[in-house]
Amino acid sequence: MDEIPKAKHDHGPLKFPEHFLWGTATSAHQVEGNNTNSDWWEWEQRKPLDKQSGKAADEYNRYDEDFEIAKSLSLNSQRISIEWARIEPVEGQFDQSAIDHYKLVLKSLKAKHFKVMLTLWHFTLPKWIADIGGWENAQTTDYFLRFIERVVPEFDDYVDFWVTLNEPGVYAFMSYLQGFWPPQKKSRWAALRVQWNLAKAHQKAYKLLKMQSRHPVGIAQNMQSFHSSHKHSIIELASVYVSDIITNHAFYKLTGYDTHDFLGINYYFHHRFNRRDKFLPTVEDAREQHRDISDLGWEVFPEGIYDVLMDISNHKPIYITECGIASTNDDRRTRFLIQYLSEVFRAVESGVRVKGFFYWSLIDNFEWDKGFDPRFGLVAIDYKDQQRTVRASAYVYSEIAKHNQMPHSLLRLLGHTVRVEEVLCYMHDKPKALCQHFNT
Ligand code: IFM
Predict the structure, then answer these.
(1) Is the pLDDT of residue 52 over 70?
(2) Which of 84, 99, 113, 350 is the most exposed place for a label (fewest CB within 10 A)?
């Protein structure tokens, strides 16, 4: 079991900074359903049915219901994305009804007093853009800018933060290096080109947004934590150093920190380099090493979020734009929340300007090439009838958000198997029905 992190105030509650944003994040293609004019939709049609997004969580029609749930959980912010393929399904032809739809979505958020973080590009492209080479083609940047120029005046009144791009590095890696995602290339050169074009697109989009809007602009960067298994192995340490630069810092170096008003961090991954008897180290398989892993085999390593926060910390405000666990076991999600939030708190106490946390995800969603099996949601979706069920872990998150603090006693619970009902009983406003089994 991982060591329980030490908070500075040994017994007091972990109080987060005033005006901290407590939210959840989603992306359009993963929840809306029927995104028929996108490159992903086209690609999925050649996959088995359980790997097709289809109706997804039908968020296109049920957004108001879901935001109502988020509100009932005392959250004060939401990160969502808009779908370029719906708004500009054909080159140069903007669909006003799609724009009006997203206006309604944003108005629904604002009516519930959420701070809104809006992502302009989250992995999917209109088919016509994919047909001209997607982000491999430098011209895509011009089309992206035209799209931004068209939508920002429509949405600016309902948005508080703009995210130009989601995880540009992950996209280049999955779509152009590993070839798992469309267009399934396996070319280092193409991956570099895509990364370069995305960096230029962000730089230009930043300038444009600064002319069109007074709201802060950033990206959501997937930051990963790296360690060496043997502290004295120079070659393992060198691998950690190089991986950190390429994965976590290269995009910021390419774009320049001055094109980011805030730093958005998506945190999911921890890697351990191990040389064993070889010359070059390889990354350990967390599953083989019997480490604590999610249903996707990703290591649960709370200290990693502290590491990346310390690593990226500069004078800019930081938002955790995504962090979550794929698990069908809600006790594990609860444990995850307590562990990761206590590490975020540790970073805050160390002076890092963390201003918000967006759990991924509000509802179960379409996890790209992995389909619907991974369950990230605070709210469960039954895909047979689109029934929403709020998971108990959501109430734990809600209690933390409502009070902007976490009772210190929760950390002690981590010493044994966490049961979500028990956790709730330790928190403020104990829900009586859930507490009857525990002597609290
Ligand atoms: O589902 C994805 C999301 O689209 C981008 N960040 C990571 C999430 C979990 O894999």
Answers:
(1) yes
(2) 113
75-84 pLDDT per residue, tens? 999 999 999 9
Domain-located, residue 348: yes
Task: Determine if ligand 1 sits within 6 Å of the CB of residue 364.
Answer: no
Q: Above 90 in pLDDT, residue 69? A: yes
Distance 346 CA to ligand 1 centre (A): 25
How far does residue 222's CA lie from ligand 1's centre (Å)? 9
What is the number of structural domains in the chain?
1
Cα–Cα distance between 376 and 398 in angstroms, integer? Answer: 16
Residue 97 lies in a domain: yes
Which segment of 4-18, 217-231, 380-394 scores lowest on mean pLDDT? 4-18
Task: Return all residues near 176 (Cβ < 8 A) that are at least 6 apart.
Answer: 136, 183, 185, 186, 187, 190, 191, 194
pLDDT at 351: 95
Cβ 1 vs Cβ 28: under 8 Å:
no
On whether residue 399 sits in a domain, the answer given is no
Q: Which residues, at least 6 apart from 46, have a Cβ–Cβ distance to it below 8 Å?
A: none
pTM score: 0.95
Query: How far does the centroid of ligand 1 lie from the alpha carbon of residue 277, in Å?
Result: 35
The secondary structure element, H or E, covering residue 224 is strand 217-228
Tokens describing residue 265: 């961090």
Rounded distance between C-alpha atoms, residue 190 and residue 182, angstroms: 13
For 189, the domain range is 14-390
Q: What is the CATH number of the domain that holds 327?
A: 3.20.20.80
